[in-house]
Specification:
- 36% of the residues lie in helices and 19% in strands.
- It has helices at 3-15, 20-30, 43-56, 82-87, 100-108, 114-124, 144-159, 216-219, 238-246, and strands at residues 34-40, 60-66, 92-99, 129-135, 163-164, 206-209, 213-214, 227-230, 235-236, 250-253, 256-257.
- Strands 2-1-3-4-5 form a five-stranded parallel beta sheet. Strands 6-8-10-11 form a four-stranded mixed beta sheet, with no helix packed on it.
- The longest helix has 16 residues, at 144-159.
- The protein is elongated and about 90 Å long.
- The N and C termini lie far apart (77 Å).
């Protein structure tokens, strides 16, 4: 084949827009960049991939894991199956979008779906995770107490080192704020609680609760003006929150007050 003709064919192939993503991915691997994973399961996550490529394509060799029934062209980024993605060593994991229920699952360590399980494993292994946006699905009829409960999980996962929220383009990820200092509790360390506790003037009853669910029937049994100490994995029902407010009960989860 004529050398000039061969050169022209190569130039045309390299200029083809459909070939550019594949060429970029190959360039990343050849440059020996650190491996990072983008995990998506819906159309919104797919639309964020291009932005993540622009922001982090020079720093990381990006790979794509499709965790939902979503058709994605292979040429966008090198794709990794979910089971292999969970076992691989990544420098960083990006989740462009997750639901409020997935965020709650990550915060409590109860991971029933593919994305929350993958993120939970990353936290256990100390891999940095960035969640771009949380779709809580709130409506005008969503109780305020339920909104407060789900939004509080963003602070919980931040304490694990997970960055939640959109990043500023061309900027390093915002540093994670240190956990809020443990508030001064209205009880003396080591003191007995409940009916067995000595009743000093002004002393409030403290009640630890470590079951997975605190419902209305549990909340109504608590003494008024008590201090409720929840385990990190305990979930409150909206009706239980209403009772706690009416009973003027202070609620702490792992040392941080949220009611």
């Amino acid at each position: 084949m004529n050398e000039a003709l061969l050169r022209e064919i190569i130039i045309r192939v390299l200029a083809d827009p459909q070939f550019q993503p594949l060429l970029a991915a190959a360039g990343q691997s050849a440059a020996g960049g650190k491996n990072a994973l983008i995990v998506i399961e819906n159309r919104e996550g797919l639309q964020a991939v291009e932005s993540l490529q622009r922001r982090h394509g020079r720093e990381y060799a990006l790979h794509l894991c499709v965790a939902g029934p979503l058709g994605v062209p292979d040429a966008i980024l090198p794709q990794v199956a979910l089971d292999k993605a969970a076992a691989a060593a990544w420098e960083r994991i990006f989740v462009p979008c997750c639901s409020g229920r997935q965020l709650a699952a990550i915060a409590t360590g109860i991971c029933p779906d593919k994305i929350s399980e993958l993120v939970g494993q990353a936290i256990l292994r100390g891999i940095p995770v960035t969640i771009g946006r949380v779709d809580y699905g709130f409506t005008a009829q969503t109780p305020a107490a339920y909104q407060t409960l789900l939004a509080g999980y963003a602070r919980q996962v931040a304490a694990y080192g997970v960055a939640v929220g959109d990043e500023t383009p061309a900027a390093s990820p915002a540093p994670i704020a240190p956990p809020a200092p443990t508030p001064e509790m209205p009880w003396t360390a080591g003191e007995r609680v409940g009916d067995a506790a000595p009743k000093a003037p002004g002393l409030r009853s403290t009640v630890p609760f470590d079951s997975k669910l605190l419902a209305e029937k549990d909340a109504i049994l608590l003494p008024k003006h008590a201090v409720l100490l929840l385990a990190g994995s305990t979930v409150l029902t909206p009706s239980a929150l209403d009772i706690l407010r009416k009973q003027k009960i202070e609620v702490y989860r792992e040392g941080v007050r949220f009611l």
